[in-house]
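WARN no homologs supplied; continuing
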Amino acid sequence: MNKLELIDTLRNEGRISKKEAATIIDLFFDKISTALAEDDRVEIRGLCSFFVKEYKSYQGRNPRTGEKVQVAPKKLPFFKCGMELRNRVDY
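OK structure emitted
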């Protein structure tokens, strides 16, 4: 399911306009993104949680040339599946 399909589902089941459904979905994703950018954890009980992992700088290697390169520290978003979702998928 992509974003447009999610908007259509919300519109049909919630009996709201497509514009209102799009606004709700955009607001939902925007708030999750903003929270992660501020290093907050987002938890939706039973469904999932989103959090940011920090990686320190390390010595890497260019696979093409074999040359050693310094990889800068970085932060990456992660998704962790909740127990209820896991059980639903693995019925």
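The helical segments are 3-14, 18-37, 83-89.
OK
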